[in-house]
Amino acid sequence: MGAGTTFRQVLARKGLVEAMAAHSPLSAMLAAEAGFDAIWASGFELSAMYGVPDVSIVSMTQHLDMTRAMVERSGLPVVADIDTGFGNAINVLHAVEQYERAGAAAIVMEDKSFPKVTSLIAGGRQDMVRVEEFQGKIDAARTARRDRDFVIVARTEALIAGLGQEEALKRARAYEAAGADMILVHSRQKTPDEIEAFVQAWDGAVPVALVPTAYPQMTVARVRELKKIGLLIWGNHAIRAAVGAMRKTFARIRQDGGIHGVESDIATVDEVFELQGMSKVKENERRFLR
Ligand code: SPV
Ligand code: MG
Questions:
Q1: Using CA atoms, how far apart are residues 78 and 167, in angstroms rounded to an integer?
Q2: pTM to 2 decimals?
Q3: Fewest Cβ atoms closer than 10 Å to its Cβ: which of 7, 29, 73, 280?
Q4: CATH of 3-238, one of 3.40.30.10, 3.20.20.140, 3.50.50.60, 3.20.20.60
Q5: What gap in Å lies between CA 108 and CA 41, rounded to an integer?
Q6: What is the pLDDT along the chain (290 residues), one digit of tens a residue?
Q7: Nearest atom, ligand 1, residue 54 CA
Q8: Rounded Cα gap, residues 98 and 283, in angstroms
Q9: For the chain, percent helix, then strand, then coil, each to nearest 5?
Q10: Ligand 1 pocket: which of 49, 58, 70, 81 to mutate (most atoms <8 Å of CB)?
Q11: CA 185 to CA 234: how far, in whole Å?
């Protein structure tokens, strides 16, 4: 069974797929351990992990390799953030073929022009492509997928670009008409009002996906009340948790002049061995090393 089918089964069973962002196989494993339904292979997180801005600098190959590793290690459906599709519809044909082959369950493609600028930055350059051009990219994604269950999520950045509710709805409808399986609408307003107004006005048949980073008042319970949401993405909490924890630990070691003060706050070496599968290595040594 393909990963897209698994994703669709979770959606059918639970009515909502809850995805946690990850930037590495280890963070994807921890998200799986915590009980999330899916992994968000976030472009922002991977860019941050490389220490570069999320402005189409990380290559498709880098993101694809990480997606493949996260698929392998997490065992969960992976929703790949392919940004703009790495170019035009021709690039999308190639990207979708590669991501499906890497084991992703879904791709999310946004209607900004390449190179893109990260969405949540204040005063960011948010250039959009024409509706018809993006419909061509959705068509290319549909054509390239082998498995019809591979999920194609069309993401509109109309609200991020300040184009307003009508433009967001117009684009979402056009993308559904072009064959998208789901519509992601992103907002960087500090309250859920803008998104809730969009969801209330949404008259399409396909579910909506949300990334409520800017408006953390949006809980799972609230999302369920809105009814039309199929995918909820916690967008960047793995990398932010990692940054916070490392900063705190490093500062404490510098301050104490040693590691004695941090031991109780960080994972033990044994915990990391467990994540790496060292007990299996020991078992295999007993069995095979003669
Ligand atoms: C990402 O996580 O890469 C996203 C979500 O696309 S956001 O950064 O909020 O645009
Ligand atoms: Mg992104």
A1: 29
A2: 0.98
A3: 280
A4: 3.20.20.60
A5: 10
A6: 999 999 999 999 999 999 999 999 999 999 999 999 999 999 999 999 999 999 999 999 999 999 999 999 999 999 999 999 999 999 999 999 999 999 999 999 999 999 999 999 999 999 999 999 999 999 999 999 999 999 999 999 999 999 999 999 999 999 999 999 999 999 999 999 999 999 999 999 999 999 999 999 999 999 999 999 999 999 999 999 999 999 999 999 999 999 999 999 999 999 999 999 999 999 999 999 99
A7: 3
A8: 36
A9: 50, 15, 35
A10: 81
A11: 14
Q: Where are the domains of the chain?
A: 3-238, 243-288
CB under 5 Å of ion ligand 2: residues: 43-44, 81
Calpha distance 28→74 (Å, rounded): 5
Q: Which two tokens stand for residue 40?
A: 């968000």
Residue type, position 205, single letter: A
